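Posted in: Structural Biology > Protein-Ligand Complexes

Title: Requesting predicted complex, protoporphyrin IX containing FE in pocket

I'd be grateful if someone could produce the 3D structure tokens for the following input. Sequence and ligand are given below.
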Amino acid sequence: MAGSDAPVDGVTVPLTPPVEDWTTDYDILDAEYITDPYPIWADLRGDCPVAQTDRWGGSFLPTRYEDVVELARLVPVFSSHDPLVVRPPDDQQVIGSSGYHTVNAPPISADPPVRTWSRRLILPAFAPRAVEAHETYTRALAGRLVDGFIADGRVDGAQQYAQQIPPRVIAHLLGVDEGRADEFTDWVRGVLEIGLSNPAVRVASRDKILNFFAGEVADRRANPKDDLISELMEAEIDGEPVSDQHIIGTCNLMLVAGIDTTWSSIGSALWHLATHEDDRRRLAADLTLLPTAVEELLRAYSRVTMARVVSEETEFKGCPTHVGDKVLLNFPAANRDPDIFENPDVVDIDRQRNRHVAFGVGIHRRAGSNLARMEMIVALEVFLSRIPEFTLEDPSAVTWAGGQVRGPRRLPLAF
Ligand code: HEM
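-- Reply #1 --
Done. Output follows.
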């Protein structure tokens, strides 16, 4: 039976029947799909470039680059208002207990015109100069983490390193308590990982995030600070202040979009370097190769799949889609399309022609990409300069999470 009833890293994926035919019945939470989706995508690109399933509320799964890019640009026919890759069954719809359960996550959950002004509000925080201001903090944090385990000769690269950096960097950016980083991580896992198959956990985690930011917004009203939350509260749209609900929703997005994505990328990069000696040694010997290598690692181990909802009856690539249907923006599969990338399954850290779409395409693309790149490069620079030689301690002990964001959850390394 696919799926398992034994919890893995605290996640119990409900038992689901094995996938007989990936073209008509794919399962994005299937263990095989999470651990090694690449051969599945390669087959689908040939057999059925836009696959379909009734699982997890039903959806369509394109696997060709051109199709994913085209879909991401078909706004608002394919609407952004519900970007989660699963839809809980009607009998499992859970209403949040916080007074904010109608708050979404603008701009990612908004179509124009709301998307346009709400994106404009946050972009300055991710401009290269603004990101630079967080580099010293990130480098010192990574160094402290390595100090903490270097004498042990072994570390869980996912749990003790990759997972520790993004929640603190985002807390630093938002101006909230970095000491609550582990709580933020739990909440984000509740929304984007455990919650995909457990709606009650998702809504409860989301409530915690929304209540937390409601408290921060109320605090800033009394004590404004030099941080992003205060900036959002000073912003005006057409002469009107931005509503607290909107600011709470955007902060919710920052936490959810800025943590799991980046830790999964740092973790996947460490997994690659632990299993590819030549690449590890070349990068350890010459850290200036990292920016190009990081682009390739973003392409090859692309993490984020998003969803759009059909807002009017339409047909896509011969597939009739109906109002309310979900279509998955499978950026990871697009980044392995042989029509676009030479030897797509070969990780080439010198790859120059690399128009990957790991950070999305179209109206919601790349908002946090500068920050993510900085965190990845700094985290790898610090790790490689202190621990140039490392391998997987036990390959069978590596575990992966998937669905919306794919990445290693356990990564025992020895050095
Ligand atoms: C390697 C790490 C990351 C990856 C792979 C990634 C990927 C993506 C993708 C694919 C989208 C587009 C979603 C869509 O079209 O629906 C997106 C949007 C977004 N990301 Fe990231 N992201 C990463 C890191 C970050 C970070 C660190 C932040 C900081 C908070 C962030 C904030 C956002 C925001 C705010 C949006 C929405 C922008 C809009 O709606 O205009 N991301 N990201």
